[in-house]
Amino acid sequence: MTVYRLVHAGYLPAIRVGRAFRVPEEAVHDYLRESLRSVS
Questions:
Q1: Contact, 4 vs 14, CB < 8 A?
Q2: Whether the model pTM is above 0.85
């Protein structure tokens, strides 16, 4: 899934700045950690 889709699906928090989305770096790390746990 792309980051854009993750934001729209509600999996990642984001702030919209103009036409761009800003996602906190820690939110991306948390999402990846959780994704790796669910796969293992």
A1: no
A2: no
